Amino acid sequence: MKKLKRWEKIPGCSLEATLDVIGGKWKGVFLYHLLDGTMRFNMLSKLAKGASPRLVVKQLRELECDGLVTRTVFPVVPPRVEYTLTAEGESFVRY
């Protein structure tokens, strides 16, 4: 059986599902800036002026869970985390 994406389980119109996926305060900002390419966590955090690091992590993890963003962790000290739009994330934003 095919596993459904989170937004495919939402009843109602496609606009409702879209707003549910990108409905966070900073998700749209992150998606927009990731169109330019890969960005590190600190840079994304600076874009979200006034948001706590915990909120930034939460919103990025939700985007990752929805398959719109890929999170890459590099095993170095200090930790380095980069975020990139997936192909699905790019198509989600372009339309």
Description:
- The chain has 95 residues and is of the alpha+beta class.
- The protein has one domain (14-94): Winged helix-like DNA-binding domain superfamily/Winged helix DNA-binding domain (Arc Repressor Mutant, subunit A), CATH 1.10.10.
- It contains five helices and three strands, in the order ααβααββα.
- The chain has helices at residues 14-22, 27-34, 41-47, 53-65, 87-94, and strands spanning 39-40, 69-74, 80-85.
- Strands 1-3-2 form a three-stranded antiparallel β-sheet.
- The longest helix is centred in the middle third of the chain and has 13 residues, at 53-65.
- The chain is globular.
Second rung of CATH, namely the architecture: Orthogonal Bundle
Q: Can you tell me the CATH class?
A: Mainly Alpha
Strand order of the largest sheet: 1-3-2
- The structure class reads alpha+beta
Find the CATH superfamily.
Answer: Winged helix-like DNA-binding domain superfamily/Winged helix DNA-binding domain
Q: Note the overall shape.
A: globular
Order of helices and strands: HHEHHEEH
| Mean pLDDT across every amino acid position | 85
Q: What is the number of helices?
A: 5
Quote the CATH topology. Arc Repressor Mutant, subunit A
Number of domains: 1
State which percent range the strand residues make up.
5-15%
Number of strands: 3
Compute the CA-based radius of gyration.
14 Å
Task: Show unreliable segments.
Answer: none
Helix coverage percent: 40-55%
Task: Give the biggest sheet.
Answer: 3 strands, antiparallel
End-to-end gap:
28 Å
